[in-house]
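Q: What residues go here?
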């Protein structure tokens, strides 16, 4: 029976934390602004890691450019991870755009549009 919190998941979480710091502190590319690393999925053999990122306050096109820049810097980020983590092999990184935050913002806008204009929050006043 597999464990609920596998080693691959624990390593993915650690990579997520370290990558967030590395991108913030080490990447100087102007296409990379404020980045949220939303998830890292490491393969069971740690050969590859899929990294899902979102650019805060960016349009989708700008976020896609950011992903290209991060994929270009993947080798540098992998070397920096190797210095910070005590793993035998550090996974090759592949960055992907994660639209989850954009979907959440869109849903919030839709909810705000549906709310009544009279200022009530939807709860009955007594």
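A:
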């Amino acid at each position: 029976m597999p464990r609920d919190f596998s080693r691959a998941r624990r390593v993915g979480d650690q990579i997520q934390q370290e990558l967030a710091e590395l991108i913030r502190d080490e990447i100087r590319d102007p296409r990379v602004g404020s980045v949220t690393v939303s998830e890292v999925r490491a393969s069971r053999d740690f050969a590859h890691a899929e990294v899902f990122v979102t650019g805060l306050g960016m349009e989708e096109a700008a976020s896609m450019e950011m992903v290209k820049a991060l994929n270009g810097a993947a080798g540098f980020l992998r070397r920096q991870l190797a210095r910070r983590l005590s793993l035998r092999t550090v996974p090759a990184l592949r960055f992907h755009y994660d639209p989850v935050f954009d979907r959440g913002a869109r849903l919030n806008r839709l909810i705000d549009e549906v709310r009544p204009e009279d200022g009530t929050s939807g709860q009955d006043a007594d």
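A: Context that may help when evaluating the design: The CA atoms of residues 32 and 66 lie 5 Å apart. The mean pLDDT is 85.
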